[in-house]
Amino acid sequence: MSHNRQLCDLAAVWLPARQIAAPLISPMRKSPLDVCSRLRANEYIILANGKSLMSSRMHGSEEALAILACRRVRTLEQPCVLVGGLGMGFTLRATLDFLPPDAMVIVAELVL
Q1: Are 112 and 24 in contact (CB under 8 A)?
Q2: Same domain for 42 and 64?
Q3: Which residue, of 58, 77, 99, 107, is most buried by count of CB atoms within 10 Å of its CB?
Q4: Which tens digit of pLDDT belongs to each residue from 34-83?
C-alpha cells in the first residue's frame, strides 16, 4: 500500500462527514426512517437511521447481486431486468456491463 493511500484511508476515518442531501422521512413507517447521504473525504455514504447503508468505497455486494440475478436472464432471447432503486448506481452499472447491449434494463426509484 502506498503512503498516500494510507493517508487517504486515515483521513476517511477521522474527517467528519458532511451532509450533502436533506434527510428523507418515509411516510410508510410508524417510526421515522431517517435516510441521508454524506460525503467524508473521497467517500460518499448513504445512512439509514445513522447506520451505513451503502458506500462508494465498498460496493462488491451490489455487483455480486446483479451478476447473480442476471446470470439466467442473460441467456434469454430478449433479456429484460428491473432494478429496484438506483442507490449509488453500482447494481445498475454491473447489470449493464453483464447483460448484452440489446437488453432492456428498467430502474424503478421511490421518490417521496
Answers
A1: yes
A2: no
A3: 99
A4: 777 888 888 888 888 888 888 888 888 889 989 999 999 999 999 999 99
Q: Are 15 and 41 in contact (CB under 8 A)?
A: yes
Q: Burial code of 45-76, b = ≥16 C-beta within 10 A, e = fewer?
A: bbbeeeeeebbeeebeebbeebeebbeebeee
Q: Are residues 46 and 64 in the same domain?
A: no
Distance CA 62, CA 92 (A): 9
Q: Which domain holds residue 69?
A: 60-108
Give the C-alpha separation, 102 to 86, whole Å.
20
Amino acid identity, residue 38? R
Q: Is the pTM of this model over 0.85?
A: no
